[in-house]
C-alpha cells in the first residue's frame, strides 16, 4: 500500500502533518455524525481527505481511536470558543448572558457536534470514559460558571441555591434541544422557530430564563 492520497495529491502529509490531521478529523467528524461509529467507513473518510487510508491508520491507529479523537476535538472546540470570550472582564450578569448566547449560537452553527454527542450517548459514554482529555477539558466550563456565580453572589445579585452545574445543565439543555430535535419539531409544528427571527427570539428567551434563574428574586 502506497502513501498516495485518495484524491491523487501526493506528499502533502510530509510537509504539513498537523494540517493533514486537522483535515482527517474534520472529514471524520462529518462521517461519524452522519453514519455513527458503526456505519462510518475509513475508506469513505480517506476518499474525502487530502491523504491516504494508510496515513489515517498511521496517525490514529484504528476507527475507534479516530472516533475518540473526533469526540475530543468536538469538545475542545466548544471549550476553546468559551475561552475566547474573556468573561472575567465582564460584570457577572453580562458574562452569564454572553456565555449562554455563545453556547446557543455554537450549537446552532455546529450540528455535527450535537450529533456526535447524541451518538456517544447511544454508546453509553464508553468512548468519553476512555478519553483522558474530555473530562478535564470540560471541567473548564464549570470553572467559568463558578467564577461568574461567585462574582454575582459577592455583588449581591445571584442566589446561593443555584449551582454552576445546574446553570450549565439549563444552558446546554436548551441549546442542545434546539438542534437535536429540530427535524421532528419542524415536521410536527412547522419551521418558524428555526428561521432567523425565530432563532433570535429563542436565544433571547433562553438567556432571560437562565439569568432569571441565577438572579435573586428582588434583582429580576
From TrEMBL:
Keyword terms of this UniProt record: DNA-binding
SUPFAM superfamilies associated with the record: Homeodomain-like (SSF46689), Tetracyclin repressor-like, C-terminal domain (SSF48498)
Gene3D superfamilies: Tetracycline Repressor, domain 2
DNA-binding region, residues: 41-60
One Pfam family matching this protein: TetR_N
Domain HTH tetR-type as annotated: residue spans: 18-78
Molecular function terms, GO-annotated: DNA binding
Membrane-traversing stretches: none
Protein name stated in the entry: TetR/AcrR family transcriptional regulator
Lineage per the UniProt record: Bacteria, Pseudomonadati, Pseudomonadota, Alphaproteobacteria, Hyphomicrobiales
